[in-house]
Design goal:
Blueprint: H1 14-66, H2 84-89, E1 91-93, E2 104-106, E3 124-126, E4 144-146
Antiparallel strand pairs: 1-2, 3-4
Length: 162
Amino acid sequence: MTDKQPNKTRGMSFIELLVAISVLAILATVAVPMMRWDEKRRRENHMRVHLSLMRNAIDQYKEKCDLGMIVQEDVEQRCYPPTLEDLLEGVEVIDPTAQSPEPKVIKFLQRIPIDPFTETQEWGLRSYQDDWDSDSWGGENVYDVYSLSHMIALNETYYRDW
């Protein structure tokens, strides 16, 4: 007499397969929005850094001009840089406290950053003379920068209002 064991099926039944696929589908519906949210949050952090870099460069230019280290011929500029490119190309700075002031060129920006939402180096600019909510640049100077994106941020504000 041979000892035969009952036939055991190997693998999964159809119902087990359906349950496994359902669980994977539920996990995917949760993971995809989380990945999109995380990507948007990462881009927002990049934009915060880029805006901060440009605003700090504008502030440094203003500070040096207020100290008399940068000579501006146009009084209407109010010691703000004429363009973002001036921060990039650099300006001649003279230390008025030095015995023999030698002008040297200081660059306030290494490059104009890319807006992570418009994916261009184009930024909205405001002059000191512009209205605070103006969306057209008067061209007198660069008082502030903002994104040209019309998208809404995770905190439900517009990126152009940052």
